[in-house]
Amino acid sequence: MESDSTTNAPEEPEGNDRRGRVRLRRAAVLAVPATLAAAGLAVLTAQGALGVQFAISGMPFTVTATDLDGTGFEQFGALDNMAEGSPNAGDTGGQVLVVTSAIKNATLTKLCQSVDLGGVNLLITAGDGKEKVTATDLTTDSTELTGNADFDGIEIGNDASTLTKAGVKGPIGVFSQQADTVHIADLRQTNYATTAGVFRLPGLKLRFSGQGC
Q1: Domain limits at 69?
Q2: Is 6 part of a structural domain of the chain?
């Protein structure tokens, strides 16, 4: 994120234009996950039983891992909302269209997370040694996902309100997919939110750095 993006609040768009953009984003939620099987997927934040119940900052952060293994995988489209008056809202009306993913149990190797604060990155690493990062009820809202993915027992085209694999249910009428297991190599995500029931980070290191993940 550019450093001046957090200091100058954008001009508020005209009422009709703003409502139009919001309606388009709501409609786009229905279509987002239809492309995910081909795109290569990822971890993770749901608007369900363990969903995002907070206003996001609107600042994206990067997450990478050399490997992710999970049991109980779900994925669908959603909208995240920023706090009212957020300087990061731009012309979005304070909303971000995201891909919501959820994993019941996950193991990650060489986890890295970084946030660009405008010339300096807040960098977190963990799971570099014999012990891996582990999480239960792990979820994330992402705008970009890349990696090499393998699924067992995958179902594509479910209604998001009927998902059963990770214990999270999405909005009714939204396209979704789920699988018994997932493996993703060379995972890379751009996220806006993450939650977990339990998140264990062996070898945790938090620092400022000139480079992100």
Answers
A1: 11-111+131-202
A2: no
Two tokens, residue 122: 């807040």
- Asked if 144 and 192 count as a contact pair (C-beta separation under 8 A), the reply is no
Strands (E), 86-197: 95-109, 111-116, 121-126, 133-152, 155-159, 175-195
Is 211 part of a structural domain of the chain? no
Spatial CB neighbours of 36, under 8 Å, sequence gap ≥ 6: 75, 99, 145, 177
Number of domains in the chain: 1
Q: pLDDT tens, position by position, for the chain (213 residues)? A: 444 444 444 454 555 555 555 444 544 444 444 334 333 333 333 333 334 568 999 999 999 999 999 999 999 999 999 999 999 999 889 999 999 999 999 999 999 999 999 989 999 999 999 999 999 999 999 999 999 999 999 999 999 999 999 999 999 999 999 999 999 999 999 999 999 999 999 999 999 999 999
Q: 82 is written with which tokens?
A: 């920023």
Which helix or strand (DSSP H or E) is residue 38 part of? helix 36-39
| Distance in Å from the first CA to the final CA of the chain | 14
pTM as predicted: 0.77
In degrees, rounded to 5, the angle at the alpha carbon of residue 132 between the alpha carbons of residues 148 and 179 is: 45
